[in-house]
């Protein structure tokens, strides 16, 4: 039996993780995040498609492509969290469980980070727990899918 596929999507500048601002985002790189997700997913019986883009349109397209292909979406929309109605609309339209992850606690930071359009359509939100948030999101996704009756 093929494991349910979870899209793990990362937005702009997350490719820079581990290179700057370690006091906010930690020392781990995006490759470390991918390795953590792969290990967590394997233990949970999930498959992942892990991606990063700097483009808003590409992120929207990837969300649209999840329809009929993925069982859920874990997304760190990065800066687009706070600006993108297009991404919010795509996540609402795809009609899959969505877990939003932020490495930092956006509510303790600048006022402009307090609003996330993605949060308005997400099933759940994890913020401020570093890259562990991705592993927690996969665990929560596995539980959501089990409740839905996914194999
Ligand atoms: O805390 C998060 O995960 C964020 O989504 C990260 C975004 C930020 O715009 C959100 O408000 C919160 C920024 C991602 C860029 O990360 C960098 C990492 C190292 C150096 C420069 C940027």
TrEMBL record:
It catalyses: 3-dehydroquinate = 3-dehydroshikimate + H2O. Its EC number is 4.2.1.10. GO terms for molecular function: 3-dehydroquinate dehydratase activity. It is an enzyme of class 4 (lyase). SUPFAM superfamilies: Type II 3-dehydroquinate dehydratase. Substrate binds at residues 76, 82, 89, 103-104, 113. The keyword Amino-acid biosynthesis applies. The record marks 20 as: Transition state stabilizer. InterPro entries: DHquinase_II, DHquinase_II_CS, DHquinase_II_sf. CDD domains: DHQase_II. The active site is at 25 (proton acceptor), 102 (proton donor). Catalyzes a trans-dehydration via an enolate intermediate. PANTHER family: CATABOLIC 3-DEHYDROQUINASE (PTHR21272). Belongs to the type-II 3-dehydroquinase family. This is 3-dehydroquinate dehydratase. The gene is aroQ.
């Amino acid at each position: 039996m093929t494991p349910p596929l979870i899209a793990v999507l990362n937005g702009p500048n997350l490719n820079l993780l581990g290179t700057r601002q370690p006091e906010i985002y930690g020392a781990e790189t995006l490759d470390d995040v991918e390795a953590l997700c792969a290990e967590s997913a394997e233990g949970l019986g999930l498959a992942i498609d892990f991606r990063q883009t700097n483009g808003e349109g590409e992120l929207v397209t990837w969300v649209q492509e999840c329809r009929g292909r993925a069982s859920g979406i874990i997304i760190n929309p990065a800066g687009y969290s706070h600006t993108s109605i297009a991404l919010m609309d795509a996540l609402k339209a795809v009609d899959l469980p969505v877990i939003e992850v932020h490495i930092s606690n956006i509510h303790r930071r600048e006022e402009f980070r307090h609003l996330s359009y993605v949060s308005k359509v997400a099933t759940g939100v994890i913020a401020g727990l570093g890259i562990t948030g991705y592993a927690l999101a996969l665990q929560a996704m596995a539980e959501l899918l089990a409740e839905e009756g996914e194999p």
